Amino acid sequence: MKAAVIGSGIGGLAMAIRLAIKGYEVSVYEKNQHSGGKISEIKSNGYRFDTGPSLLTLPELVEELFHLAGEPLEDHIQISKLDVICSYFYEDGTRIKAFSDPNQFAREIERTTGEPSSRVLQHLSKCRQQYDLTADIFLFNSLHKLQNYFHWRVLKGLLRFNRVDAFTSMHKRNASRFKDPRVIQLFDRYATYNGSNPYIAPATLNVISHLEHNMGAFFPTRGMRSLIEGLESLARQKGVRFQFSKHVEKVVIEGSRAAALRVQGEDHLFDLVVSDVDIHYFYKDLLPDGKPVKTRIQDLSSSALIFHWGIRNKFEVLGLHNILFSNHYETEFQHIFENQSIYSDPTVYIFISSRVVPTDAPEHAENWFVMVNVPPDSGQDWDKMIATVRRHIIQKINRILKIQIESYIEYEEIGSPMTIEKHTMSWKGALYGDNSNSRYAAFLRHPFRHRTIKNLYFVGGSVHPGGGIPLCLASARIVDNEIKSV
User: Fold this and answer.
1) Closest Cα to residue 198, out of 211, 207, 189?
2) Neighbours of 288 (CB within 10 A)
3) pLDDT tens-digit profile of 131-155?
4) Are residues 205 and 227 in the same domain?
5) In this structure, which of 162, 235, 332, 473 has its CB flanked by the most CB atoms within 10 Å?
6) Interior CA angle at 374 toward 286 and 335, to 5°?
């Protein structure tokens, strides 16, 4: 039995491995010259930059793939738990280190803000309870097959749906648990992990902070790109064939089956097809009728504006992950989701992988991945916006860190919604497909399989359960559970 996987993002790689383990002869078609999707890299002038995700949670989903294949994870990828997840900087001079140990983190918040540590621990406990209730419903289960609702764990979760906290916003829930606005802002930011607005998105998204602070944040010791290298190596070991620089033109449909893929004018026959392509592009470009995808969620997630800076100095005040918060957080999200613009005081994320991987930058230098959340592309004047945002970012860094960062920048490459769309085929540059601002978003995402084409399946960030490394890996597990072994 022959199976094709279109696209080699982390969801596609996971699916290829799972199909090969089931006994399928698997071919992966990738339009780029390399695998990885958004988990890519830039190498230039002695610097190496991870260009996409910069943190790993639920590493057991990666380890599961190696376990299924009978291979030790550590032979391919080395992953370490972080002692400090992130360093937070505020305009008033407050600095908070988010320690991975929940008790130490809670004490740090009390020391820096006066917010009682007991409130932090109570919040994280409630987030854990939310995760325990929702994981089997939303993350590791298809919501699009009626029989899946009758598993005991799913039924139990649905019967306690009021405790999922879907009927109030993340911000309102956090504001009810904390008094200090800096702490509220810290926990509100987890909505950005799937490109959503904490002032609208349901408080269910607080489960994301559980993943980091209760279960742990991790980082591959050779950088995020090594995840892809390890998974591709495993896939090849299991016999997966990779067809790089091969753009799939159409999925050939015969009756109710996907019969072949048309690549460079030639049809290749398959018994099973899995798409890791953004769902909007798949329907528009790859199905014969070219009709846009029908979805009940119209609003896209946020995108990103990224400056890859080679910095000719070292700044010990910064760690691996750093957040310089906006002073007016709600206004920032109004600009992104309502005005389709960028606020003049954006929250700035700085990721420096050379803190863990010294070879990612020359000696006495650092590789800065500097990112702000921005709207997807809707025809804005991006040249003007990028120049303005760059100036605002530099002003903010200089103001908060008390440095003149522009004098140390010796290399720069810019990523935008347009480059994200070009390189990863993410619709309009949206990082996570549709956003999760609706309380029903988890139920309304595109299902794991096509409604009428019986052997056509979907994985990746634009379908259920959503974007980000853990959810893309979860989508592959869901599809795997539906496909029989050869």
Assistant:
1) 189
2) 10
3) 988 887 777 766 655 455 445 555 5
4) no
5) 235
6) 125
